[in-house]
Write a structure and sequence with these properties.
heterotrimer, A alpha+beta (about 120), B alpha/beta (about 170), C alpha+beta (about 550), B: about 170 residues, alpha/beta, 5 helices, C: about 550 residues, alpha+beta, six-stranded mixed sheet, five-stranded antiparallel sheet, 18 helices
């Protein structure tokens, strides 16, 4: 599965794509099957919004506690907040998806991010 | 629309460029030309003998000192910024204006952005081919942005320590 | 302390106005992110994992209470009520909104602060000895030269687009608290036999992917020739430093490639062409020097009764004194180090409340003087011994009296993967795990000086190469692993640490450090620090112990 993420231009907030809008909670993100062409289409649209977001890219997901979580550790930290201040960032609100993210055990580089670096 | 901005007595003006940039593999047109260092070294004598004005375009790895003996014969030295963050041309500009006292035009070409205009003017550039479509007014505003400077450079502006003494 | 005059203030106002315009152009779409990025970086603004990060310059680590209170206020108003002190003695806020930054710069400018050149390929904040003006070890006050360099390097028209960032450190004491030998330029202020002052000039040290201890290229540069000599070094570097590969662009690579003798020859040749015209006039040097004139010290007895009594009656205070109070050049005074390494806390973080407390203490007891150390602590350089008990009590109440300066839990750590967009692994929780392991203060004191430094990637912001124990986070197929190095030092005995062995997983690092310490305690001779023992025994006993399980 995949999701589309970026940072919002005005405040740097981590955001996720949901049917044409950017939302701040990973729990609300739109998820696509790996072979769903809609993911690439959304990424293309995200990249044409330079006054809304910075650096839109797709991330890979892994199953955790029956829910989906970003596969790479970096992306889980982005979706949660820093591990040294558990009341800072998105993790502060708690809930099942946050817990699933905190317990997830995927291990991979952030692939979307690597592509982004290569393109530059 | 003019593509060249000239800085004279603190004022920026858009002007029509009388010079033609001539690539190494291009036939030599009539009139005033700016050529590469290699082409100048090969054909410079002939071009100057034809009575036209000649400028040399230095790439950022070429050092301005190589032109030391030719400077009195040159009308323009164009210094290339292959990317805005390649800062070697600032040193070339400083050497040309501050050290070798070149009297002709020192022109910025390449990835020339108005955000760098103030720095360029300080090290002695007095002509600019902006890559960002900045107007002469915008260019002038960028050059005048700072009321003070901290260090001496080729523009002769009084640094802070001199202002403090006066 | 140095006071900004109308010229300095107008420079900051102009800068702030310029950035306000650039931010507006970015938000309106006139500037693309690629065009805007270098502009925001020149103002210390990064886009990190969760938000923008704003790095505020603290020139040579020197603050007055008004400035520190303003930082506290900014932390409260625009961030989450805290700030993070860095190894460049700056302060960064981790939760900043782009749209707020022009206002923040205006607020900073009100107290003569800014974020100029805290990023970008330019000359960064010059650092110096946090004990400057207070320690008897120094031959002269290095802040005079740090301020001269601040002005000279600010918006330098020729050296703002160098091949890579450029960092200068100045120490005037033989005991080096600035890591001068691992800087692009390290300056060691010395006095010649005839009494004249000069700098030993060290060029091409550094960390990152290719760490070097810098060689000395000039043994004695007369102090009044400093700026022309720096100009010569920077000009040679600007022209010849590599620009084709970001990892080979620092000056250390150029110095190593040319050899220090050839590099020095090129600098001397350029310096001869520059001449004395590029140096600061003596009148300006005298003006700057006057601003750092000795503080108003009272004539006091060397011993303070109140101080001695508190030490005798309160073991916790006595422990604080043993570890955090350093000798002052004036009788009856001391240098108080404030540890920002509370056990379980984030190294270098201070809450807005803590900043306010330190500002109050500096005002009441510390001659309005506060310093930031490159080891991410704070210093009150001039405190009467009589007042140290009161200072300690207030610090204790604020949770920043941890008595661990230079001890095992006084760890440098970069923000790492918890915040930084470049990191491969976390650094902060590793530091927290180690500190927790050594929370027994008796044991920590028994271990003595031990510098642990942790970086979350090879860029080495956490100075791991020069840690007595260095820890580098690496990404192994998406998992956090940590490479340990031993025997590094950033001080006058500078050295790059050597690798212990294969990288360890996250949850094994604190145990491994514990094992290394046990080996040291077993092997050490009288008076040896961890570093001394390691240098005597070599890596073998340490390696055997840490990897024993693997055999």
């Amino acid at each position: 599965m995949k999701a589309l993420t970026a940072n919002r231009l005005t405040d740097g907030e981590v955001v996720f794509w949901k049917s044409g809008q950017w939302v701040t909670r990973f729990a609300d993100a739109e998820l696509w099957a790996d072979d769903d062409p809609a993911a690439g289409e959304a990424e293309g649209q995200g990249k044409t919004q330079p006054t809304t977001v910075v650096d839109a890219y797709l991330i890979d997901l892994v199953e955790s506690e029956g829910l989906w979580a970003p596969l790479s550790y970096r992306e889980r930290i982005r979706a949660l907040g820093p591990t040294n201040h558990l009341h800072h960032g998105k993790q502060a609100e708690g809930g099942a998806v946050i817990e699933a993210l905190q317990h997830a055990h995927g291990a991979a580089r952030s692939t979307g991010r690597v592509n982004l670096i290569k393109r530059k | 629309m003019p593509t060249l901005i000239e800085l004279k007595d603190g004022v920026c003006r858009g002007v029509d460029d009388p010079f033609t940039h001539v690539a190494d593999d291009q036939d030599m047109p009539a009139g005033d030309v700016i050529v590469s260092l290699a082409r100048f070294q090969a054909e410079g004598e002939g071009l100057l003998a034809e009575g036209r004005r000649v400028g040399v375009r230095l790439q950022s790895h070429e050092e301005a000192e190589v032109l030391a003996y030719d400077l009195p014969r040159l009308s323009v030295v164009a210094l290339e910024f292959p990317k805005y963050r390649d800062g070697r041309a600032y040193t070339n500009g400083y050497v040309l204006s501050g050290r070798l006292k070149f009297k002709g035009q020192v022109r910025a070409v390449g990835d020339v952005l108005r955000e760098q205009a103030g720095f360029m003017a300080r090290v002695g550039f007095d002509a600019f081919e902006p890559a960002d479509d900045a107007s002469a007014n915008e260019w002038q505003a960028a050059i005048r942005r700072y009321r003070h400077v901290y260090q001496r450079s080729a523009d002769g502006r009084a640094p802070a320590f001199a202002e403090r003494e006066s | 302390m140095y006071q900004y005059d109308v010229i300095d203030k107008e420079m900051l106002a102009d800068r702030s106005a310029e950035f306000r315009g650039q931010v507006a152009r970015r938000l309106s779409g006139e500037l693309t992110e690629d065009q805007f990025k270098p502009l925001r970086l020149m103002n210390g603004l990064y886009l990190q994992l969760h938000a923008y990060m704003l790095r505020v310059a603290i020139p040579y680590g020197s603050l007055n209470p008004t400035q520190l209170r303003k930082l506290a206020w900014i932390g409260r108003t625009y961030d989450k009520g805290y700030g993070h002190f860095t190894t460049r003695t700056n302060l960064q806020f981790h939760w900043i909104k782009l749209a707020d930054t022009p206002d923040i710069l205006d607020h900073l400018a009100q107290v003569d602060m800014h974020a100029i050149q805290t990023s970008g390929n330019c000359i960064r904040n010059t650092t110096t000895d946090p004990y400057a003006g207070a320690t008897a070890e120094e031959v002269d006050d290095p802040r005079v030269w740090a301020e001269a360099i601040r002005q000279w390097s600010t918006f330098h028209p020729e050296f703002s687009f160098l091949p890579r960032k450029f960092k200068i450190a100045i120490t005037a004491a033989p005991k080096d608290r600035t890591a001068a030998k691992v800087h692009d330029i390290g300056l060691v202020l010395k006095r010649a036999r005839d009494g004249s002052l000069g700098f030993e000039v060290i060029v091409g040290g550094g960390m990152g992917r290719t760490p070097y201890v810098g060689p000395t290229i000039k043994e004695f540069l007369p102090v009044n020739r400093l700026l022309s000599y720096l100009e010569a070094i920077l000009r040679v570097y600007n022209r010849h430093g590599r620009r084709d590969n970001i990892y080979k662009a620092r000056i250390k690579i150029l110095v190593a490639a040319l050899g220090k003798d050839e590099f020095a020859r090129q600098v001397e040749a350029e310096w001869a062409k520059i001449g004395e015209a590029a140096d600061l006039p003596d009148t300006e040097l005298a003006r700057i020097r006057g601003a750092f004139a000795a503080a108003n010290f009272e004539v006091l007895p060397a011993q303070s009764e109140a101080f001695e009594a508190a030490k005798a009656s309160n073991p916790a205070f006595a422990r604080f004194v043993r570890n955090n109070l350093k000798p002052h050049k004036k009788a009856g005074y001391g240098i108080v180090e404030i540890s920002l390494k509370g056990i379980g806390d984030t190294p270098g973080d201070a809450t807005s409340e803590q900043m306010d407390v330190v500002a109050d203490l500096a005002e009441r007891y510390g001659q309005n003087d506060i310093r930031v150390t490159h080891e991410q602590n704070l210093v009150l350089p001039h405190v009467k011994l009589d007042d140290v008990p009161a200072v300690w009590a207030a610090l204790s109440e604020a949770g920043i009296a941890t008595p661990n300066i230079n001890l095992v839990s006084d760890i440098i750590a970069c923000p790492g993967l918890d915040y930084c967009a470049l990191a491969n692994a976390r650094a902060i929780p590793v530091a927290q795990n180690i500190a927790a392991k050594f929370k027994d203060q008796d044991r920590a004191e028994k271990i003595g000086e031990l510098k642990i430094k942790i970086s979350g990637c090879i860029n080495a912001c956490g100075h791991h190469h020069v840690g007595h124990i260095g820890i580098l986070g690496v990404d192994k197929k998406g998992e956090e692993f940590y490479q340990l190095t031993l025997g590094g030092s950033g001080a006058e005995d500078a050295a790059v640490g050597s690798m212990l062995g294969p990288a360890l997983p996250y949850d094994k690092v604190a145990d491994a450090v514990d094992t290394l310490v046990e080996v040291y305690l077993r092997e050490r001779h009288d008076g040896e620090r961890f570093l001394d023992t390691f240098r005597r025994t070599g890596v073998t006993p340490f390696k055997e112990a840490v990897y024993a399980d693997a055999h």
